[in-house]
Write a structure and sequence with these properties.
The chain is α+β, with helices and mostly antiparallel strands and 286 residues long. The chain is built from ten helices and seven strands. The mean pLDDT is 80.
């Protein structure tokens, strides 16, 4: 009964999974920027907003909003039994009113805390205020990239990187992380000129490889044969693999495109290019 649904489930999953993964990566990137950059920029903006006074009434920031949107603390209202929040406490602090033992400095501090707490609630209730912090973070990242593109920026960053690499533990991790990020973010793309089959990792075992170009000069000078540099991707993640140098006479040119070769690798050989599939069927029929 359920076996009839299996092909449809796989087909639907195959159609939806790339979209879901893409959306998931975008959400992760947004949260990463928001948590590590935008959040602190928003906090700075909250302090600037507070200089101008309390939020206007039409924004709907009151004690009820402080209980709904604030950061909970281990304290409850004795009358309503509701859990109190940091923002609620700041908005109802005793120092807000001039009373016995309350100095002007105490009142000023309490009023500033109240305004900051209210603007913090504004940024949570009206996400546009938090979006401003995110946009500023994105602009700052672009400005950083523009600066690093200049001679002074590149020189400065090289000095910083050298200093980081000298730090114990961090110096051992940073270069590897940088290689991974550079691979995914760099504008430079690896150009493959063809698909070949090469006997690797030993003679008699054939692997699919992507020709990247000519070999290193030092190797080319030592070997009189015509050499090729070939990238042998691994399954099911073709972004990793091995780079080898082989003689042109030792490789077989395959009738497939780069995309066909990558699909073949990702599927561990299950998905074959059309021409290869036809040849396979013809051999099986013969």
């Amino acid at each position: 009964m359920f076996s009839g649904f299996k092909p449809f489930f796989k087909r639907g999953l195959g159609a939806l999974l790339p979209t879901i993964v893409t959306i998931g990566l975008l959400v992760w990137a947004y949260r990463f920027v928001d948590e590590n950059f935008a959040k602190y920029i928003t906090r700075g903006l909250v302090s600037l907003y507070a200089i101008g006074g309390e939020p206007k009434e039409f924004l709907g920031i009151n004690e009820h909003a402080a209980l709904e949107l604030g950061d909970p603390i281990d304290e409850w209202d004795p009358v309503t039994g509701r859990r109190l929040t940091v923002q609620y406490k700041a908005m109802t602090a005793k120092g807000l009113g001039m009373g016995k033992g309350v100095t002007d400095a105490d009142q000023d501090f309490a009023l500033q805390r109240r305004k900051e707490a209210m603007w913090e609630l504004v940024s949570r209730k009206w996400r546009i205020f938090s979006a401003i912090g995110f946009l500023i973070a994105a602009v700052l990242i672009c400005v950083m990239g523009y600066f690093l593109a200049s001679f002074i920026g590149r020189t400065t960053w090289l000095i910083v990187e050298r200093a980081v690499k000298k730090i114990p533990v961090i110096g051992a991790i940073y270069p590897n992380i940088k290689q991974v990020t550079d691979f995914f973010i760099s504008d430079k793309s690896v150009e493959f000129s063809g698909v070949v089959a090469v006997q690797y990792p030993r003679k008699g075992v054939w692997s699919v490889g992507l020709v990247t170009g000519s070999p290193m000069p030092v190797i080319d000078r030592e070997d009189p044969r015509e050499l090729l540099t070939v990238f042998v991707p691994s399954s099911p993640t073709p972004v990793t693999g091995y780079t080898i140098t082989v003689a042109r006479e030792d490789v077989l040119v395959l009738p497939m495109t780069i995309d066909d070769a990558l699909r073949y690798t990702i599927s561990a050989g299950v998905v074959k290019p059309p021409l290869v599939a036809e040849q396979t069927e013809a051999l099986a029929a013969g």
